[in-house]
Amino acid sequence: MPRRGWAVVAAVCGGLLAVLLTLVAAEWGPLLSVDRDIATGLHRSAVVHDDWTRTNRVFSDWVWDPWTMRALLAVVTGWLLWRGRWPVALWLAATATIGTVLQQGLKAAVGRERPRWPDPVDSAHYAAFPSGHALTATLACGLLLWLLAVHSVRRLWRGLAAATAAVSVLGVGFTRVYLGVHWATDVLAGWLIGLALTAVAVLLYPYAADAAPGGTPKASEPETDTPAPGGATEGPSPRADRPYGT
Fold this sequence. Notes:
Shape: globular
Radius of gyration: 21 Å
Helix content: 55-70%
Oligomer: single chain
Largest sheet: none
């Protein structure tokens, strides 16, 4: 995606988040009604289907838990430091930290209560909006997919990683509402924040890549075996440290 595309993603997600935040803070009736209907329907299913509920708890509390996502980012940050790419490692760590600070700040500012049930199947503490699980999973997956792209990892592995990321981001959002610890709009807000932060981080990435010793490999381009017209040789390749022409 070109640089302008990432800027559009950041702007659109930011605008949608602003609208959603305003409606939630104002306790707009139609939105709250939709939230209650979704939460009530899923909670009824969770109470009845014990095995499926336990499976959701394992994925929510362990596989897609924010600390699991942060640990994964910490491992990648350590690998980048080991490779001597400290500016990119700093870029990754700073983005993850900003995501956590923004999440906690919004929770404190909005102060939205979580769903309450007479027969809960799970529990969670602190304010509900936005979902930290959804935000952290979206941001972590987005950043890691970008790093795979700029390091020209084989297309097959990037495809598998993208599929895993999609399942994780959508799955964690479902589990949080299914287990009755978040409203659907909490999850939506987490997705929007995570995607917006990812887009902003991608826009800032070239500055970290420029500062990194040796530059960063360019994201893979479609390959072709077609020779240049008239047997002419190709011109100089674009800067390797500016993925997708950024």
